[in-house]
Amino acid sequence: MDRSKERASEGSITPTPAASGQEPSAAGPKSGTAGPGPSITGPAPSTAGSDFLQLDVGDAPPGGLADWLTRRLREAIADGRLPVGSRLPPSRQLAGELRLSRGVVIEAYRRLTEDGHAAGRGRHGTFVVAAPAVPRVPSGRAPAPARPARPDGLFTAPGSDAFDALRAAPARIDLSPGLPDLAAFPRAAWLGAERAVLGSLTSSAFGYGDPRGTPELRLALVRWLARTRGIVADPDEVIVVGGVAQAMGLVAQVLVRAGIGEVAVEDPGPLGARQHFRYWGAATPPVPVDAEGVRVDALRATGARAVLLTPAHQFPTGVVLGGARRRALMDWVADGGLIVEDDYDAEHRYDRPPVAALRSMLSDGVCYMGSVSKLFAPALRVGWLLAPARYREALVDAKRFTDLGNAALPQLVLARLLESGELERHLRQLRRRHRRRRDAMIEAIGARLPGTVVHGAAAGLHLMVTFDGGPDDAAVAEAALERGVKVQPLSWHGIRPRRPGLVLGYAALPASDIAEGVATLAEVIRDLS
Questions:
Q1: Which residues lie closer than 8 Å to 416 by C-beta, 6 or more apart?
Q2: Hey, CA dihedral for 414, 420, 423, 426, is it positive or negative?
Q3: Tell me: the pLDDT tens digits for 454-504?
Q4: pLDDT at residue number 333
Q5: Which of 168, 237, 389, 484 can bridge 172 by disulfide, Cβ–Cβ 3.0-4.6 Å?
């Protein structure tokens, strides 16, 4: 990719080479010819265009050339006109064909690279390396309806299929929380590690394995958790699972069979977690959360013997569990309590120091779970579970009789990436990108929604915003979806009534889409107020 430091002059259109005396473009006369190119009969075109994607500068809004070109390129990548592996035109060539400042093209390519859709390969040019996950209509089939029916009460009374229904709903901008930047998946690193693993595997490695996971990944995980989360554990303590969702299901089954029929949950707290525990027969009494995290006095009042917590970055408020609350939880555990720790968003922090996992302080009183869903991609379905010794054998049995263990090949690839340091390099890149997108969302909220309060900005992949005197948040989410913007209402994740608000993800979108999505939300709130 051209790495010129020239910045885009988004409103500028350069004269044609013949008129300016500049170096001719591919659309103009060849080098060394005198005078202008051949005359063209008929009226002169008012704008420049290119055969490449049939781009027409006349479609661009005034002062927004880089935004227009970036959007057109993203659309072409999404719909397959620019497939993965295709080479983008040289910036100088495309600028000449469109009669634009080269800086506009450079800026558009830079944004595609930042989004993870393109990558520069030096003198070889800029190539498409990833496409967004957009449903494609198979050839020979009728296209699906533009607006498939959604379940009644999706936002007011979410059922067990609420997340599936929201994911399936069409929208031009998805601000759902918990969605990582899928375009940033390190395909080249994963492919290289997979080739190396396959080249060294013995035939016996393709057979049935330990339901706890491969020894290689369990060893790599305990080293990773010791470095990054302060957790000291033995590989034999680790159970590799199909993401945090499966870990919750296994823990719920084991606890219910052990006579623990209630698992207290944070309020507000993740709707999906409540659904998982309820599915396996556990009640989920709510415990209020304030600026210091879960209120341990209220936890004691529930009488529950177990509690699910997100202490590193509480979902959805973003608060960090304070020191006094941690000490109070240690006393509660000493009295027989069990903490189920979802180490949610612990790696994604920007403006605060790292926070130790509760498991690092209370190894005998914590079922600890995490995954690579926010680091790499949810589709990998790889996570881990560390449990106190009294529950470990039952959890291994639950995993064994669920699926005999995770697929071995992805585990071995992940182990190699962990041991090589590739995961940490990838995380550093993600943090820089996510910080810029978080800042873009905060700026857009400040400009478009000045009456709202932003929570949880120091870490994570989402923001929580609340507003007083505004409309019902479920109505806002419903109306926003009708206008093509997908969000989750705060009321989804609360059990008791509270201020209306929204939970907005920013990790998966470029700054321009974030700004457009927030602008649409501002219009919705204004129209409903």
A1: 193, 196, 197, 216
A2: negative
A3: 999 999 999 999 998 779 999 999 999 999 999 999 999 999 988 999 999
A4: 97
A5: 484
Cβ(348)–Cβ(461) under 8 Å? Answer: yes
Helices (H), 201-340: 215-229, 243-257, 271-279, 296-302, 323-334
Q: What are phi and psi of 259, to 5 degrees?
A: 90, 10
Locus of tokens 């623990």: 260
Q: What is the DSSP string of 52-96?
A: GGGEEGGGSPTT-HHHHHHHHHHHHHHHTSS-TTPBPPPHHHHHH
What does the pLDDT look like over 250-260, one tens digit per residue? 999 999 999 99
Q: How far is CA 409 from the centre of its chain?
A: 24
Q: Would you say 158 and 272 are in contact if contact means Cβ atoms under 8 Å apart?
A: no
> How many angstroms separate the Cα of 255 from the Cα of each of 62, 263, 282, 336, 390?
62, 9, 8, 14, 11
Please state, in angstroms and rounded to a whole number, the distance separating the CA atoms of residues 344 and 123.
41
Give dist(CA 242, CA 233) in Å, integer: 20
Return the residue matching tokens 């290689």.
216
